[in-house]
Amino acid sequence: MDERPLIGIMVSNRRSRKRILDLCQRYQHLNLKLYAFTPTDIQWNKQRIIGLSLKKGKWTQSSFPFPHAVYNRCYNKKLITIQRLEEAIGRNKCFNTINFFNKWDLYNLLVHSILKPYVPDTFLYNEVNISELLESYKLVYMKPIYGNKGASVYRVELMDNEDIHISLHSLAPRYICRKNESIQEKLDELLGPKTYMVQQGILMSQLDHQYFDIRVLVQKGIMGEWTISTIACRVAHKQYFNTSMCEHIYDVVEVLPRLFPQKKVNDILQSLRDVSVKAAQEAEIHMGSLGELSVDFAIDKDSKLRIIELNGKPQKSIYNDIKSFKSKKLIYSRPLEYAYYLSQS
Asked: Is the pTM of the predicted complex or chain greater than 0.85?
């Protein structure tokens, strides 16, 4: 009889089962039995799941019993499938219960925690006067409360001549609102029915005149504790502000010493670690059981860290572009270590 813990990896569609399972299988070092499945593969009445596994080097689709723990790789906002699974396998045996984060909910969580000094002022778009905010901040960002990869994020800047430049991805204005035109009307037209929030613009430090952010990947491991797996810098293309469309990605230790003295570098690195773990702990209070997330930071002109946002389903392929990247095994194996931990509890 196979005594290995049975770990299920839930993915959005059948096409992605093999790719995600292959990566997990390649880097896992524990004696686990893994299979990948989609929500539609769950046979609730039979308490079985149709899953894909790698058996003696061959991909095999079989009927499996419910697993001991589930690693959720679906990009979801709703809990219904996770809740039903946990009724069958046990409370908190699934992790990344919600990983499509509501940015407004997270802002409110962080701003009422000890992390408030790291969070830029943020407002719901339909509750503020944009002209007044621009008078105060000169620069703001409009973000959909559900969004990823910088999609539909607008940069809105009040210029010295009182024109307002509205940019998407690149710094060059896509629209110019003249001082006698209504910025609110223009934005209403641009943003449409989606719910947006407005974030105070941060005057970011630059690397060779290019914007960059810092992404900290926080994961739980074999002891069930949050830990830092990797810290990277994403450098935007020249004349672009969207770091999700990055030109380069570096290990953070390659970048910070080019900008700051060593003592400051050490302080920033320690703060990145401490703040990211605390942010993950806070997010889990609101989102339910989590096993990984990333925290994106900017460094402002006063060399202070500011949290830009949290991501519940960190894109791991970006690390492929870091030369001499040593943490690849870690970023794929840690969630499986955590799944093992859950299977034993």
From this structure: yes
